[in-house]
Amino acid sequence: MSGPGPRYARGDRVRVSERFPPGHVRTPWYCRGRIGRVERICGRFRNPEQLAYGNREAALGTLYRVGFPSGSLWPDYRGSERDRVEIEIYEHWLEPVSGDAE
Amino acid sequence: MTEPAAGNTHGHDHDGYDVDPTHRHPPQPDLEDTPLVRHQVMQMAVTSLLVEKGIFSADDMRGQVERMDALNPSTGARLVARAWVDDAFRKRLLADSGAAAAELGIDIGPITILVMANTPRTHNLVVCTLCSCYPKFLLGIPPDWYKSRNYRRRAVREPRRVLAEFGTDLGPDVSIRVHDSTADMRYLILPMRPAGTNGMSEEDLAGLVTRDALIGVTVPRAA
């Protein structure tokens, strides 16, 4: 996990890592590889992938809420273009989108 | 339905249903008739050990279960009703639900709860696609459907159909924000105050706010 300051700011576009490690991962499959926008920074929390195995010293990292247009998650989505899904994602699951933020 | 059916030998009828007194209903299984799963066995074993070693008493354990079971949605409803009658409180509730709830003597528990306000243009809905994360301190134990795979996968995939099945039809002008409660936050929906409730007391307003409205699968209506 990265250093103490949040790497992303509200409004930044981010891509969810397209990785599929085993274990207690809190990143839903349906958003992996998808691009969203940081809706808010939730604070710093211990990495659940380590906590789940009894590591009380699990690394602290920033947790974000990232919003995705529902239509970008499911191409055949039926609803308003403004419909969206907002998901809590830890920083180590996010990648910068080129041309943005970094 | 006055003619006793064949087999009724005890002198009165049963309003038309099967009246054979020798008829046996299939037994309702007792709790013990379902085999324990591994985690139940583990929970019982760990509880016994902790009590045996004096970490806590059996009464502590019982009391904690009783407290958890006593949590219920009326607590969340009180917050909503106060927000409806007091706009400054509403702003504080949206900014920091823990501090705002404490003003009413309500403990939201150890986990941050984000309050999401419905507007005429946006409806909010909560799901935990990964398990069953839920704001227990404000709503109590979640309903079974909230934990079902069907609700969990469809709430993010086709929320409008899910809402319609709950009897909630949003117009096309209303957008949906689905909050997937995947990690360290929990969510409470702040519904809009229904029309026709002017002059109602805060307590009566709270009575209109149901569990399902606080999850976002319905909206409160004036009684």
Can you walk me through this structure?
- The complex is a heterodimer of chains A (102) and B (223).
- Chain A has 102 residues and is mainly beta.
- Chain A has one domain (13-96): SH3 type barrels, CATH 2.30.30.
- In chain A, 8% of the residues lie in helices and 35% in strands.
- Chain A is built from 2 helices and 5 strands.
- Chain A has helices spanning 48-51, 70-73; strands at 13-16, 35-46, 60-69, 84-90, 94-96.
- Chain A has a 5-stranded antiparallel sheet with strand order 4-3-2-1-5.
- Chain A is globular and about 45 Å long.
- The mean pLDDT of chain A is 93.
- By secondary structure, chain B is of the alpha/beta class.
- Chain B folds into 2 domains: 31-70, no CATH class; 74-215, Nitrile Hydratase, Chain A (Alpha-Beta Complex).
- Chain B is built from 11 helices and 4 strands.
- In chain B, strands 1-4 form a two-stranded parallel ribbon.
- In chain B, helix 3 crosses helix 4 and helix 4 (87-95) crosses helix 5.
- The longest helix of chain B has 15 residues, at 38-52.
- Chain B is globular and about 55 Å long.
- Chains A and B meet through strand 2, strand 3 and strand 4 of A and strand 3 of B.
- Strand 4 of chain A pairs parallel with strand 3 of chain B, so a sheet runs across the interface.
Write the layout of secondary structure elements.
The complex is a heterodimer of chains A (about 100) and B (about 220).
Chain A: E1 13-16, E2 35-46, H1 48-51, E3 60-69, H2 70-73, E4 84-90, E5 94-96
Chain B: H1 38-52, H2 58-70, H3 74-85, H4 87-95, H5 97-103, E1 112-117, E2 122-127, H6 136-139, H7 144-147, H8 149-157, H9 159-165, E3 175-180, E4 185-190, H10 202-208, H11 211-215
Parallel strand pairs in B: 1-4, 2-3
